[in-house]
# Entry
Amino acid sequence: MVVLKLIVGLVLLVVGAEALVRGASKIAAAIGISPLVIGLTIVAFGTSSPELAVSIGSALEGKADIALGNVVGSNIFNVLFILGLSSLITPLVVHQQLVRLDVPIMIVASLLVLLFGRDGTVQWWEGALLLAIGIGYTIFLIRQSRKEHNKEVLKVYKEEYGDGKDAKKEKTWLQVLLVIVGLALLVFGSGWLVESAVAIAQSLGVSELVIGLTIIAAGTSLPEVATSVIASFRKQEDIAVGNVVGSNIFNIVLILGLTAVIAPGGVPVNPTALSFDVPFMIAVAVACLPLFFTGYRIERWEGFVFLGYYVAYMAYLLLKNTKHASLEAFTDAMVWFVVPLTVLTLGVVTVREMRKKNKAH
# Structure
């Protein structure tokens, strides 16, 4: 019954997020908001709404490890699993703005989690600061979207989210009902998910932090999986990559920020998360920069590397939590062989790309 409740909770979260995005997008289009702005704001918020519902719900119930693990785990999952899987479907072309602005913002936001968590808690005022950054970033995105002249990008967003004329033909009350139903499903789904996840953690002797970093993080990221994978099949690389980077930024500045403001006493930060998982999230964010920089593409082999690291991360969590005898050997292999080899490979590729660009000039 507990496992069934977990599955139903995940389904409710995904369906609720989809209903919320569809309803809110149509309402926004009907009142004259451009499809591109809808994609950058409402859809970005909507695909992150499961993380928001779970983080706030678990923080209010005193399950802080789940709240933090959900955000940190989702960001790791988004980059390593979703980008890795999407680039296997088709090599992803990366927009230059992502390299110059969005990825650096994602790295800075990740570093702020480490900085704010050093005293053991993300305080309410630190959450308010994260929220202010999130609002400023959203305003910047809206302003930038008005300067968008790429016809392909504009066409994709118009097809995906409609325009004012199409939206006005549909019944407004139906869209409002979709939003209300979506929000209700998110509330119920998050409650069941947190309750069942805690029960599973207790029965298996697994920490709530690990459950938050794995099952809940992957489950709440399902809307992002669907968005990026479908975009990859349609060759809409801008949406596939932008969705992941944007979601990671929103997860920290809006979701963690709002959770810290609402939760009594802020969001406590587990020392284990502070010593390993948060630094790993930062490393994953930093790893995007050279990958995105090398020809502004994520090739299939780079997608394999991302997926490989996600499997290794999951294996590490499992071995550490079960105190398995092979943990030390596994850690040594990663630290002294796999990671240096990856850094060396990325370094060689980056130098080659820079030489190509210098020759071109």
Remarks:
- The chain has one domain: 2-324.
